Structure formats: structure tokens, C-alpha cells
Amino acid sequence: MADSDRAHALIWDTAAGAAAYRRRDMRLARQLIFPAVLDRLGSPPSSGAVAIDLGCGTGVLAAHIARARGWTVKALDISPHMLDVARTDNPHPGVDYILFGGRSLSEFEDDSIDAAVCCLVYCTDPDDHRLAALTAEIHRVLRPGGPYILADLNPDATGAQFSTLRYGEPGITYADGDSPAVVLRQLDGTDVTMACHFRSSATYASMLTAAGFPAPEVELPTAAMPPDAAESRVAPYMVLTTHAVPAAD
Ligand SMILES: C[S@@+](CC[C@H](N)C(=O)[O-])C[C@H]1O[C@@H](n2cnc3c(N)ncnc32)[C@H](O)[C@@H]1O
């Protein structure tokens, strides 16, 4: 992160972070992430099947999953401020918004959850140990075969100016441990700078396999329109899909 960005970057789980994120321009995320997540998630395997949304933020995706596919969603976040926005802006009878510590899913039994989604969260959390613990917990609570869909900023697209965001500075190569800011376009056309934490694609894959998941399938969705936009050439986001496997005896 350049010094000027570092001074202005907002932290996600603060009141200011939640207020800024509430005003983001979501068009690109809605166009590229939401359909990929719904495709990978599929329909609930039974009535009352439960999906967990880890780091649900303002609840847009959790409510979309409940509305579009009929999943019962347990939507968890470490930020009471984000959850306040979620309960206000995206209430849905099929979604419970729950505050947790970002690490343990002790409220859920082993093999009790049918699917898990985590969208744009790992890039916001600087704590490798907490994410490793959370990833292992996701594997524990998922029933064998249950999908885990992890969507995030594409670490191979830093510096590209997309229509609604830029992750990191052009011309800089980032490595694990670096903290490039993400600049998000707001609904009023202004920009806000938020703190992020870089991990390579290989690191994402190894975080999943270390938690017991098979190596993920990687999807890099690009936009068809407009043809001259950066997002038609380079994927702003990546969508990783894996699934829980039975625990070894
Ligand atoms: C960029 S927002 C994404 C919110 C939402 N998933 C979305 O796609 O719009 C990141 C969210 O992750 C939350 N977060 C960060 N670290 C977390 C962790 N270890 N566990 C759960 N939530 C976390 C933050 O509080 C914030 O609400």
C-alpha cells in the first residue's frame, strides 16, 4: 500500500468501514460473483437445508441465496456494524445474522451444514492463523460432499482499473504479507480506500488443502460488456469451489 493510501484506508469491521461498504457500487460483483456462486451452490438438497455465509458483511449475498434458491442461511460476521446494516438493508425470513469471532463455528455440529460460502473475506483479514482455523471449522461443519465456495479479489489482477474497483497499484508485484489497498467506487461516483491483505492464488489453494479440502476448481469470470472495459479482459474476482470430504478415521 502506498503511504498516502495507508493513511486513508478504512478497516472493514469498524463503523466507518461498514458505512462505506454499504455505499459501494456492487454492479461488477453482482454480475460476476453472484451467478457463479449460485451456479456452484445449486438448489438446497432438501427443504430446510442450511448454507453458511462466512463474513456476510451487509448481507446482500446471504439474502440473494435465500431468495433465489430457497436456502436457509446462517450469515456470520465479526463486525456488529456490518450486521446492523445487514439486518436493516437485507432482512429475509430465511436468513439469521449472527455475530461470531471469525475463527470457531462451535455453534454448529460436525457434518451439519449443507453448503458454505465466503465472499470477499480472506482479502480483508490480516490474520493467517484465524483464517486457517476458520477454514478447518468450515470443513468440520460441512457434510461430506457439501460445497465450499470461496470468492475473492483475483490476486493476479492487482493494479488493473476495473469499473468499480482497483486492488493495489499498477506496476507493483505483491507477495504474501503485503497489504495493497482496494479502492472501491461508491454509488455517488466517489472512491473509498479500504485495507486489504494479499495472498497468492497458490496460498489460497494451500489454505484449503491444509484444512482437508481437495484442491479447488478455479473460475475467473470476465464481463462480456463493455468490450473495452478492463473486466472484459481480466477477471476482477476469482471463485474457488471445493467440497468437504469424510474425516479420516
Ligand atoms: C469485503 S466484506 C464482504 C462482505 C460480503 N461477504 C460481501 O461479499 O459483500 C468483508 C467482511 O468480512 C468480515 N470478516 C473479516 N474477517 C473475517 C473472519 N475471519 N470471519 C468472518 N468475517 C470476517 C468483515 O467484517 C466484513 O464484513
UniProtKB/TrEMBL annotation:
Keyword annotations from UniProtKB, A to Z: Methyltransferase, Transferase
Classification via InterPro entries: Methyltransf_11, Methyltransf_Superfamily, SAM-dependent_MTases_sf
GO molecular function, a single term: methyltransferase activity
Pfam families the record matches: Methyltransf_11 (PF08241)
Keyword Protease: no
PANTHER family: METHYLTRANSFERASE, N6-ADENOSINE-METHYLTRANSFERASE TMT1A
Protein name per the record: SAM-dependent methyltransferase
UniProt source species: Nocardia goodfellowii
